[in-house]
Amino acid sequence: MRFLHTADWHIGKKLHGFDLLEDQKAAFDQILQIAKTEKVDAIVIAGDLYDRSVPAVEAIELFNQMVIEMNLQEKLPILAISGNHDSSTRLETGGPWFVQSDFYLHTRLEQAFQPIEMGDTQFFLLPYFEPISARLYFENEEIRTIEQAMKEVVKEMTMHFDPEKAHVLVSHFFVAGSEKTDSETKLMVGGLDTVPLATLDAFDYVALGHLHGKNALQSETARYSGSPLKFSLSELNQTKGVWLVDIDVQKLALEFKEIQPVRDIIQIKGSFKELISPEFYETIQKDDYLHVQLTDRAVIPNMMNQLRQVYPRIIGVERLYGREDQTAKKTTKAGLKKLAPNQLVEQFFSEVTGEEPTGQQQKWIKEQLAEIHQSERGK
Amino acid sequence: MRFLHTADWHIGKKLHGFDLLEDQKAAFDQILQIAKTEKVDAIVIAGDLYDRSVPAVEAIELFNQMVIEMNLQEKLPILAISGNHDSSTRLETGGPWFVQSDFYLHTRLEQAFQPIEMGDTQFFLLPYFEPISARLYFENEEIRTIEQAMKEVVKEMTMHFDPEKAHVLVSHFFVAGSEKTDSETKLMVGGLDTVPLATLDAFDYVALGHLHGKNALQSETARYSGSPLKFSLSELNQTKGVWLVDIDVQKLALEFKEIQPVRDIIQIKGSFKELISPEFYETIQKDDYLHVQLTDRAVIPNMMNQLRQVYPRIIGVERLYGREDQTAKKTTKAGLKKLAPNQLVEQFFSEVTGEEPTGQQQKWIKEQLAEIHQSERGK
């Protein structure tokens, strides 16, 4: 059995306001290409297919197009589960028909215990769930944490084990000891949602979703595939891709296949003058999603607009050494009272935007204040 | 060919705040029963499956359950289109898989021209569409109205006609001369969305959706099925159900099959005293959705609460002969100034609610005013 393990597609996600649909489509095309080239028997998607429980229409269109292409056109079996970002009810629409073409999409806990058998392997598709679901399913009031729930879940799964076959678990949660980054939201504090790695020992391979880095967990037999794209600055140095998994009762072999982004997330560092000079920007991909580290301390008028003229996709600007004279400029209440109205507005503008008003802006401020002054006198 | 024609399910609709899911489920069960008893070859649903473009999770659950039961469990072919209340993209999820079990769900104009052939009949499933879609599809800038669009649509459909077969159009729009009621929202003014009946002459039968009364259109060969339930007071006197259609190249036979609601919409009329007396309310279904016509003119303290204790599902109260002394009570500005604070609040309460404050409410008003008075003095 050879399958491809991916997860955390987060279709419809935006990166600091930038639409990622085109990037997600390009990553998907590479996943499909890998699946075809490597002649996999199935594609495993370990949750968070969508980024939101109520995805936008454009996200639904893209996702539908992807699975149609993968399953109906390329005839690739799909083994998928819902993640914490998905709405299980919205996602499961169509599910009972999907199975006719070997597209298995599990969204409810009770579906997890009927293994999907393909060749010499049994797949247990366990969607993201809350402890309450396990409490109800097992009729066991003691279950309060995912760890407790998982012990029961695994116990019930093993009762369906065929000893002649390899056993794969597909699931979406936080395994103890994993490293997390910024873009996996809502991870609970205190370990209530954490599963100890030993709980998963019964399986020959655990295809995990939830964390976005492929190296989040150090284990031979349980892996996060990571997301196919970088979704936050904290994933800057991660290599993205999918696991190619060869498995049978005797052996497990893993190979990581990289995905090349259309636009990477990169970080650039320098003075404002350096960064907007062609000598610098002609050496990098200006169209990438950029995090800018500025070495200047001086106030730079109209900075963001000037940077955006060179770099259309800035996702953040950081002043590495802070800003000049920030303390010196802090004015006392008495000092404020001495300022002219236009100076007050200009100072407020600078504090909020981090930029001095331009000549034109200063002119507007004066004109508007004069107009207000006129109309006040007219009353 | 024998099929059942229904439309305008509006799953998830609320009636003056009352959830209709249970009523909709019960109506569906009867539709399914009719389909089985009458051994129909297919079920036609002419649009507005959902009430909203983004249905609530509960509505999706119910709808999914319905089509699973109908198509996968009872093996009944379904021929459905999206209506103006549906989001075509959200609805079409799963569509390419549905066809494997003869569930055809068309949501885009371009799907309408490939007839679904069943036995001796060709079905053309034309989803609700806007003129812009026809303008793009036919690459014809002249198309500005649905009437213009429909001429082109029908012309293209007839090119696919098999003369050996009967031709059925399934569509969702307003046919000129139809009578509309209150609950079909967003009907445009000025006839821009209106299709003349003659445009539909090419078809042996037109299964329409959009209007909620089965008699909205006077035609032998084009019918609205109406909604399976009453969705507004204006539908008070409508009989709800589905059409049972027998069709072949030679003949068309129609029979209307009624659906009995769990709770009807009814109107009751009488004085307040009559309506809350057991002699009256024991003669009617108190659990129905009730519109109340009150013959009293006097102000009735706490009227709504008292009525609701008897009738849990009131959707409206109407004073048939207006309210007593409304003009006489209108106070002049000078008159208002003479009122004590508590009298002012009581009068405001009466004007807004149409009820006198109860003794307890009068007490609260006085207490609160005293408290305010105290705290004002304390300043």
Automatic annotation (TrEMBL), chains A, B:
Q: Which Gene3D superfamilies match?
A: 3.60.21.10
| A single MF term (Gene Ontology) | endonuclease activity
Transmembrane helix listed as a keyword: no
Look up the domain of life of the source.
Bacteria
Sequence ranges assigned to domain Calcineurin-like phosphoesterase in this UniProt record:
1-213
| Claim: Hydrolase is one of the keywords in the record | yes
One Pfam family name is Metallophos
Q: Which SUPFAM superfamilies does this entry report, sorted A to Z?
A: Metallo-dependent phosphatases (SSF56300)
Q: Which Gene Ontology biological process is one annotated for this entry? A: DNA replication
InterPro entries in the record: Calcineurin-like_PHP, DNA_Repair-Maintenance_Comp, Metallo-depent_PP-like, Mre11_N, SbcD, SbcD_C
CDD domains under this entry? MPP_Mre11_N
Sequence ranges assigned to domain Nuclease SbcCD subunit D C-terminal in this UniProt record: 262-352
Q: Which UniProt keywords apply?
A: DNA recombination, DNA replication, Endonuclease, Exonuclease, Hydrolase, Nuclease
Q: What does this protein do?
A: SbcCD cleaves DNA hairpin structures. These structures can inhibit DNA replication and are intermediates in certain DNA recombination reactions. The complex acts as a 3'->5' double strand exonuclease that can open hairpins. It also has a 5' single-strand endonuclease activity.
Oligomer status and interactors = Heterodimer of SbcC and SbcD.
Give the family per the record.
Belongs to the SbcD family.
User: Which PANTHER family does the entry link to?
Assistant: COMPONENT OF ATP-DEPENDENT DSDNA EXONUCLEASE, NUCLEASE SBCCD SUBUNIT D
Q: What is this protein called?
A: Nuclease SbcCD subunit D
The gene for this chain is sbcD
